[in-house]
Amino acid sequence: MKETIRELFNQSLENADTEDVKVLEQLLKGFLNSKKNSERPLISHLLNMEKTVDAETSYITTPINSITDNSFRIVHGGITATVMDTAMGILANQLLPEGYSAVTSNMNIHYIAPGIGEKVKASAKLIHKGSNTLVMEGSVFRDDGKQIAHGTGTFFIVPPNDGRKI
Amino acid sequence: MKETIRELFNQSLENADTEDVKVLEQLLKGFLNSKKNSERPLISHLLNMEKTVDAETSYITTPINSITDNSFRIVHGGITATVMDTAMGILANQLLPEGYSAVTSNMNIHYIAPGIGEKVKASAKLIHKGSNTLVMEGSVFRDDGKQIAHGTGTFFIVPPNDGRKI
Amino acid sequence: MKETIRELFNQSLENADTEDVKVLEQLLKGFLNSKKNSERPLISHLLNMEKTVDAETSYITTPINSITDNSFRIVHGGITATVMDTAMGILANQLLPEGYSAVTSNMNIHYIAPGIGEKVKASAKLIHKGSNTLVMEGSVFRDDGKQIAHGTGTFFIVPPNDGRKI
Amino acid sequence: MKETIRELFNQSLENADTEDVKVLEQLLKGFLNSKKNSERPLISHLLNMEKTVDAETSYITTPINSITDNSFRIVHGGITATVMDTAMGILANQLLPEGYSAVTSNMNIHYIAPGIGEKVKASAKLIHKGSNTLVMEGSVFRDDGKQIAHGTGTFFIVPPNDGRKI
């Protein structure tokens, strides 16, 4: 099995151009980082997400390259959704007491400009904290400052040791 | 540069367990497939998406593993959004005349059950075809048949050689 | 006080044309019906909503006239939202055990064609019934059969004698 | 015909309590105001909406009473949608050049607290102005300052003398 993979890797590297090499590097680094920091999901590592959080806002930055792009060479709507969901989810979980979790129950996204440039940056803030749900707002920007998406999300609050499989 | 990557690869493989090996295999196969079929975005290949389309419905299937999962070990909401957006976008583009493209302008998703099992399958169908937009419906199911997400999307119709950068 | 109102009524009737007379009739009949059937909200009576429900679908029909129209003389988006919310809410409540209530927590609507003609008809069906929420689908049609809106809604399930003010 | 209506009016007034009298007064004043100011739709007058607009925000205030309430005696979700859509639509239209109109193509609302008190106030601001659409944000508050709803909307820009029936 490991031999098959070594063969796949050699094929991958063989005709790799500069962009390809960068992509392979990001994927392998992401994989290795996920072994060291398994609290964050693998997809966060593969997309090389960097997070920063302050009291009221969370931020997720991810580099734009062929891993994030759709076939029009702009950031894939699903990737934009992924970084927005991640930014909102991180803040939602941070706002809850120890042991409680927040899981997305609804997400609505308006795509307003093409995602191009070096990286995208998602930010999230709280709209409403209720007893059962949190409503969050998410925004995604390019590095030239232009907003590419605006959205909102509802997160369910799951108590500690809740019977439910979340 | 290539040496750095070879080193990263060796580290990745060194302590890899069975699940890790499967993940590395899927990522490398995905990368290689994207070189052969560059019409589809890399993320589709990395997620090992398989598509089928008939006259009125498109389907996207993707295996569930640590590439798709969040830190609760259920499918990440952003990945669910990615497969739903892909299924809706494929059908939207297929419904347009040659040269026209459809780009997502709005997506709304209700997450209704945890994504677990072997794979998820997204399907999309048309709600409305207008002169400027298409409204699509997307559903995502587990392999036990349970629906995990339901959503709708608006797609802008971009004419051929449109001045706009989509 | 009642004299002021009588004066307002006389002014209303004085220069009323045929459409005006129909509107005044619908408003007054709606008001009177709300005194007889106070389980339904006044706005349902003012809009002369008729409901039918079967096991899996609920329907709300409302006549189109200047009460429903916006300044472009097509059905106001808020009225379309009102009939869709009503149709979804009626079915949601019917699907719950005695004493439980369903209250709207999220509604998303795509407006796809202008609301014109004699009446609009909203229908609702269930997408998902969970332990805390119901996800519903709503559609609104003209009497020529054309769909004017498509939407989804999340409804919270409120247990009997719940402490919360819903 | 007018005699029938006079009879309906007399019946309405006969057993009217103080709240009923206020409702009838608001409906009749709304009807009469719509004859004087026919640019705004009748429903705005019936709900006694007051609007204020400044450069970047529009506001709609409407009194809470049995016209706005649902059967739980809190503001009906459809009425909340109506005031939010109105606030967003007014600002959208104001932001466009003479002759252009904005029509709602999508609206998404999170209901976060029950609408109670004397009145609700909706505000709207611009998220994004594109060449074909505007994306707006709407918020609805009670008079004690608590937010009851948060939403977003997409509005299509309709050029002057556009062939389409909007």
TrEMBL record, chains A, B, C, D:
Protein's UniProt name: PaaI family thioesterase
A Pfam family reported for this protein in Swiss-Prot or TrEMBL: 4HBT
InterPro entries for the chain: HotDog_dom_sf, PAAI_dom, Thioestr_dom
Organism expressing this protein natively: Heyndrickxia acidicola
Transmembrane parts of this sequence: none
Annotated Thioesterase domain residues: 74-148
Keywords associated with the record: Hydrolase
